[in-house]
Amino acid sequence: MQKIRFHPAFWVLAFVMVWQGNALMLINTVVSACLHEGAHARAAYHRGYRLGQITLMPYGAVLSGAEAIEPKDALAIAAAGPLANLCIMSVVTALWWMFPALYPATKPLFVVNATIFVFNLLPVFPLDGGRMILAVCKNRTKTLKILRGIGVALAIVLSAAFVASAFFGINYTLAIWAAMLYLSATGGSRDEQYVSLALNAPCLKDWSAPVSLLNVAIDTEYTLKKLLRLIRGDRILTVEIRDGSRLVARLTEEEVCDLCMRFPLSTTVGQAISSFRPTADV
């Protein structure tokens, strides 16, 4: 089960919003941030990854460890969160067209999702925009330093704008955004990393209930990513790899996990076992 904790910045924002009489906006923020992260988690699980801990921020969540994910998967996982917010905005807009009377009640939900959507697309790591850029760049080390540097620079600019606003009408939102950008650029921990489900397969079993045995036969062109999705907490997996009618290898669940840790998840089972032959009964 994933651990979920709220970052201190979330509580600061909650206090400011309640103090300013925006409790309804706060509720929309919590719900939208959870849906945003849920989309990330779903996309990650679909591609053979899970998140050890979710740290919710006002704009979504702090997620680290993208360096260990295949670029194509990292791009899809990063895009899932903003797409969830975009879908919510689209649904709300459609409701306005069909039922204009709902506009006052649903406007806060639209504003919150628009804010989370825009904020997460900023080119700052580990925000989603930074993750998507990192996923398509070849020099990841240099790109990562640049993305983190942009985050710190933007935080400084917003901090200066907050100080300047004190002379004209103080704007606490600028301070909150500055803090969030800085924390994003410098945040993240090992607990918040996406890791392959293969690392956690033994922990996924729920031994408090009967665990069934599942034996499946797959073709050599089946990818490790698809194979990893067959691992569940309520069953133990055994796999027969076949090339047509010919049995190529028989894998235990532990051997499947071993292959998934040794090779990219986009690798076919046939390629994996030809490079690393497990102790199979053939």
List the helices and strands and how they pair.
Blueprint lengths: L2 E4 L1 H12 L3 H24 L2 E3 L1 E5 L2 E3 L8 H28 L4 H18 L7 H9 L3 H26 L6 H15 L7 E3 H4 L11 E8 L4 H5 L6 E9 L2 E7 H10 L6 H7 L7
Parallel strand pairs: 1-3, 6-7
Antiparallel strand pairs: 2-5, 3-4, 7-8
Helix pairs in contact: 1-7, 2-3, 2-4, 3-4, 3-5, 5-6, 6-7
Protein architecture, described:
The protein is an alpha/beta fold and 282 residues long. The protein has 2 domains: 3-197, no CATH class; 205-275, CBS-domain (Roll). Helix content is 56%, strand content 15%. The strands form 3 sheets. A 3-stranded mixed beta sheet has the order 1-3-4. A 3-stranded mixed beta sheet has the order 6-7-8. It is elongated. The chain starts with a strand and ends in a 7-residue tail after the last helix. 34% of the residues are buried. Mean pLDDT is 77; it is low at 62-67, 189-200 and 278-282.
Largest sheet: 3 strands, mixed
Q: Tell me the series of helices and strands, N- to C-terminal.
A: EHHEEEHHHHHEHEHEEHH
Name the average pLDDT.
Answer: 77
Strand content: 5-15%
* Cα shape: elongated
Structure classification: alpha/beta
For the largest sheet, list the strands in their spatial order.
Answer: 1-3-4
